Amino acid sequence: YPWQHAPETQLSKFNLTEIEAMLGSYTKVLFVRDPFQRLISTFMQGMGSSPSFSSFVQDVLDSRQHNVPVAWKPLVGLCQPCLIQYDYVVMFGFLRQELGHLLRRAGLPVDSHLPKFTDTQVWWTYSWLSEQMFSELSLQQKQQLSHFYRWDLAAFPFSGSLLSD
Protein backbone atom coordinates (compact mmCIF):
# COMPACT_ATOMS: atom_id res chain seq x y z
CA TYR A 1 0.00 0.00 0.00
CA PRO A 2 2.80 2.46 -0.78
CA TRP A 3 0.41 4.91 -2.45
CA GLN A 4 -1.45 5.31 0.84
CA HIS A 5 1.58 5.43 3.07
CA ALA A 6 3.18 8.66 4.20
CA PRO A 7 5.66 8.96 7.09
CA GLU A 8 3.09 10.66 9.28
CA THR A 9 0.27 8.17 8.60
CA GLN A 10 -0.64 6.17 11.69
CA LEU A 11 -1.50 2.51 11.44
CA SER A 12 -4.87 3.16 13.05
CA LYS A 13 -5.92 5.11 9.92
CA PHE A 14 -6.12 1.87 7.93
CA ASN A 15 -8.69 -0.92 8.07
CA LEU A 16 -7.83 -4.34 9.51
CA THR A 17 -7.15 -5.98 6.11
CA GLU A 18 -4.74 -3.19 5.13
CA ILE A 19 -3.03 -3.31 8.53
CA GLU A 20 -2.49 -7.06 8.28
CA ALA A 21 -1.11 -6.73 4.73
CA MET A 22 1.26 -3.93 5.70
CA LEU A 23 2.52 -5.61 8.87
CA GLY A 24 3.04 -8.84 6.94
CA SER A 25 5.20 -7.08 4.36
CA TYR A 26 7.50 -5.23 6.81
CA THR A 27 10.38 -6.40 8.94
CA LYS A 28 9.22 -5.31 12.37
CA VAL A 29 11.88 -4.31 14.91
CA LEU A 30 11.20 -3.30 18.49
CA PHE A 31 13.87 -1.55 20.57
CA VAL A 32 13.39 -2.03 24.31
CA ARG A 33 15.03 -0.78 27.47
CA ASP A 34 14.57 -1.61 31.13
CA PRO A 35 11.71 0.62 32.35
CA PHE A 36 13.65 1.83 35.39
CA GLN A 37 16.55 2.89 33.16
CA ARG A 38 14.06 4.69 30.91
CA LEU A 39 12.86 6.62 33.96
CA ILE A 40 16.41 7.56 34.94
CA SER A 41 17.18 8.70 31.40
CA THR A 42 14.00 10.77 31.25
CA PHE A 43 14.79 12.39 34.59
CA MET A 44 18.43 13.08 33.64
CA GLN A 45 17.31 14.73 30.38
CA GLY A 46 15.17 17.11 32.38
CA MET A 47 11.91 15.93 30.89
CA GLY A 48 10.25 16.13 34.29
CA SER A 49 9.92 19.29 36.35
CA SER A 50 10.72 17.59 39.66
CA PRO A 51 13.77 18.61 41.73
CA SER A 52 14.56 15.06 42.91
CA PHE A 53 14.31 11.62 41.37
CA SER A 54 11.96 10.48 44.12
CA SER A 55 9.53 13.34 43.43
CA PHE A 56 9.82 12.66 39.68
CA VAL A 57 8.88 9.02 40.27
CA GLN A 58 5.92 10.18 42.35
CA ASP A 59 4.82 12.38 39.43
CA VAL A 60 5.07 9.34 37.15
CA LEU A 61 3.03 7.25 39.55
CA ASP A 62 0.42 10.00 39.92
CA SER A 63 0.13 10.35 36.12
CA ARG A 64 -0.54 6.67 35.50
CA GLN A 65 -4.27 7.27 35.78
CA HIS A 66 -4.22 10.09 33.23
CA ASN A 67 -2.44 10.87 29.99
CA VAL A 68 0.85 9.06 30.45
CA PRO A 69 3.71 10.69 28.47
CA VAL A 70 5.45 8.44 25.96
CA ALA A 71 8.79 8.90 27.76
CA TRP A 72 7.68 6.66 30.61
CA LYS A 73 4.61 4.88 29.30
CA PRO A 74 4.94 1.09 29.58
CA LEU A 75 6.27 -0.41 26.32
CA VAL A 76 3.50 -3.00 26.15
CA GLY A 77 0.99 -0.15 25.82
CA LEU A 78 3.08 1.66 23.21
CA CYS A 79 4.19 -1.20 20.99
CA GLN A 80 1.49 -3.85 21.38
CA PRO A 81 3.86 -6.88 21.37
CA CYS A 82 0.92 -9.22 22.01
CA LEU A 83 -0.84 -8.04 18.84
CA ILE A 84 2.11 -7.38 16.52
CA GLN A 85 4.52 -10.20 15.86
CA TYR A 86 7.88 -8.44 15.84
CA ASP A 87 10.66 -10.04 13.83
CA TYR A 88 13.35 -8.69 16.15
CA VAL A 89 13.44 -7.34 19.67
CA VAL A 90 16.64 -5.38 20.27
CA MET A 91 17.59 -4.63 23.86
CA PHE A 92 19.56 -1.64 25.07
CA GLY A 93 22.97 -2.91 26.08
CA PHE A 94 23.38 -5.03 22.95
CA LEU A 95 22.66 -2.53 20.17
CA ARG A 96 25.92 -2.89 18.25
CA GLN A 97 25.85 -6.69 18.15
CA GLU A 98 22.15 -6.95 17.43
CA LEU A 99 22.09 -4.19 14.81
CA GLY A 100 24.93 -5.87 12.89
CA HIS A 101 23.02 -9.17 12.98
CA LEU A 102 19.81 -7.43 11.92
CA LEU A 103 21.48 -5.71 8.96
CA ARG A 104 23.04 -8.99 7.78
CA ARG A 105 19.66 -10.78 8.04
CA ALA A 106 18.02 -7.99 6.05
CA GLY A 107 20.69 -8.34 3.34
CA LEU A 108 22.12 -4.90 3.98
CA PRO A 109 25.85 -4.15 4.12
CA VAL A 110 27.42 -4.12 7.55
CA ASP A 111 30.42 -1.86 7.37
CA SER A 112 32.16 0.99 9.08
CA HIS A 113 29.17 3.28 8.50
CA LEU A 114 27.51 1.97 11.64
CA PRO A 115 27.46 4.60 14.35
CA LYS A 116 29.60 3.99 17.39
CA PHE A 117 27.30 2.73 20.11
CA THR A 118 28.28 3.34 23.69
CA ASP A 119 25.52 1.32 25.35
CA THR A 120 27.79 -1.55 26.36
CA GLN A 121 30.52 0.80 27.60
CA VAL A 122 28.12 2.71 29.86
CA TRP A 123 26.34 -0.36 31.17
CA TRP A 124 28.28 -0.33 34.44
CA THR A 125 27.45 3.37 34.90
CA TYR A 126 23.75 2.65 34.49
CA SER A 127 24.01 -0.20 36.99
CA TRP A 128 25.62 2.04 39.57
CA LEU A 129 23.28 4.94 38.86
CA SER A 130 20.23 2.67 38.97
CA GLU A 131 21.19 1.36 42.39
CA GLN A 132 21.80 4.88 43.71
CA MET A 133 18.52 6.25 42.42
CA PHE A 134 16.57 3.15 43.43
CA SER A 135 17.80 3.60 46.99
CA GLU A 136 16.21 7.10 47.04
CA LEU A 137 12.74 5.61 46.59
CA SER A 138 10.40 4.51 49.35
CA LEU A 139 9.32 0.88 49.53
CA GLN A 140 5.83 1.95 48.43
CA GLN A 141 7.21 3.75 45.35
CA LYS A 142 9.28 0.69 44.43
CA GLN A 143 6.23 -1.56 44.72
CA GLN A 144 4.05 0.85 42.75
CA LEU A 145 6.66 1.12 39.96
CA SER A 146 6.93 -2.66 39.78
CA HIS A 147 3.16 -2.84 39.46
CA PHE A 148 3.05 0.00 36.88
CA TYR A 149 5.60 -1.78 34.66
CA ARG A 150 4.48 -5.35 35.45
CA TRP A 151 3.50 -6.14 31.85
CA ASP A 152 6.82 -4.87 30.46
CA LEU A 153 8.67 -6.96 33.03
CA ALA A 154 6.61 -10.00 32.05
CA ALA A 155 6.92 -9.46 28.29
CA PHE A 156 10.65 -8.76 28.01
CA PRO A 157 13.65 -10.44 29.65
CA PHE A 158 15.07 -7.49 31.60
CA SER A 159 17.44 -9.65 33.61
CA GLY A 160 18.66 -7.88 36.67
CA SER A 161 15.98 -5.18 36.59
CA LEU A 162 15.60 -3.61 39.99
CA LEU A 163 11.85 -3.47 39.43
CA SER A 164 11.50 -7.23 39.05
CA ASP A 165 12.73 -7.94 42.57
TrEMBL record:
Highest rank taxon of the organism: Eukaryota
Record's protein name: Carbohydrate sulfotransferase
Question: Taxonomic classification, please?
Answer: Eukaryota, Metazoa, Chordata, Craniata, Vertebrata
Q: Which UniProt keywords apply?
A: Carbohydrate metabolism, Glycoprotein, Golgi apparatus, Membrane, Signal-anchor, Transferase, Transmembrane, Transmembrane helix
Q: Which PANTHER family match?
A: CARBOHYDRATE SULFOTRANSFERASE
Membrane topology of the entry:
Single-pass type II membrane protein
**One Pfam family of this chain:** Sulfotransfer_2
Which protein family is named in the record?
Belongs to the sulfotransferase 2 family.
Tell me, in one coarse class, where this protein mainly resides: Golgi
Among InterPro entries, the record links this protein to: Carb_sulfotrans_8-10 (IPR018011), Sulfotransferase (IPR005331)
Task: For this entry, list what GO says about its biological process.
Answer: carbohydrate biosynthetic process; dermatan sulfate proteoglycan metabolic process
Q: What is its EC number?
A: 2.8.2.-
Enzyme class, UniProt record, top EC level? transferase
The answer to keyword Coiled coil applying to this record is no
Q: Name one GO cellular component term.
A: Golgi membrane
**Any one GO MF annotation of this record:** sulfotransferase activity
Q: Where's it found, cell-wise? A: Golgi apparatus membrane
